[in-house]
Amino acid sequence: DAGVTQSPTHLIKTRGQQVTLRCSPKSGHDTVSWYQQALGQGPQFIFQYYEEEERQRGNFPDRFSGHQFPNYSSELNVNALLLGDSALYLCASSNGLIRYEQYFGPGTRLTVT
Amino acid sequence: GQQLNQSPQSMFIQEGEDVSMNCTSSSIFNTWLWYKQDPGEGPVLLIALYKAGELTSNGRLTAQFGITRKDSFLNISASIPSDVGIYFCAGQGRSFGNEKLTFGTGTRLTIIP
Q1: Does A100 touch chain B (CB under 8 A)?
Q2: A57/A59 Cα distance (integer angstroms)
Q3: Which of A85, A106, A107, B112 has the fewest CB atoms nearer than 10 Å to its CB?
Q4: B36: distance to nearest CA of chain A, Å?
Q5: A49 to chain B: which residues are within 8 Å by CB?
Q6: What count of Cα atoms within 13 Å lies in the side-chain half-sphere of residue A106?
């Protein structure tokens, strides 16, 4: 049973550029949530996707956007990158009809220079 | 963004010792979860708690959902080297459309040889 997968593992971008991160949920899960984890801190909720729509959003600017595909996989897009966007980006999947537990992928380490 | 208060911030123990950590919030949660994170990896779910007062075990780990629904506790008995890492608590509203996880500040566990 494959767990949550994310790509790429690492990414280096320049300030002002745009980036797309990808996530495939755990088998049987239909909900994907994205979190940002700065060094030395706990993960912060960005947004959650269910049935291809953004269902809940955290306190992040509009530069952060996402998409969910019919196969439940998801993308996180960040525009106009800032140095402060450097972080570990985590994807978590769940199925609220079964349990609300969220299972995390290994993350994508984004460095903005 | 909001982070829950976790204590202690770090712990230095010897192998075989028992460990206790706790997490407090100013808000009520309907679910408490405990995760462990190793460097450069995503959080791994250890225990989920769904009911106030609930006590749940997973091997050497025992967690409790506080009666007030504003706190939770995690105990690790007879620590071993693989217990080293950062432990995060997370609270969740657990209603449709309100599934975001709010994480604690983390407790770093180190085992002294």
Answers
A1: yes
A2: 7
A3: B112
A4: 11
A5: none
A6: 9
How does DSSP assign A62-83, residue by residue? TTEEEEE-TTS-EEEEE-S--G
* Most B CBs within 10 Å, among A55, A100, A111, to test the B interface: A100
Tell me the pLDDT tens digit for each residue of B17-72: 999 999 999 999 999 999 999 988 999 999 999 999 999 999 999 999 999 999 99
Tell me which chain A residues have a C-beta less than 8 angstroms from the C-beta of B3.
Answer: 41-42, 44
SS3 category, B82: helix
Chain B residues in contact with A5 (beta carbon < 8 A): none
Closest to B24 (Cα-Cα) out of B5, B46, B3: B5
CA distance A46 to A101: 17
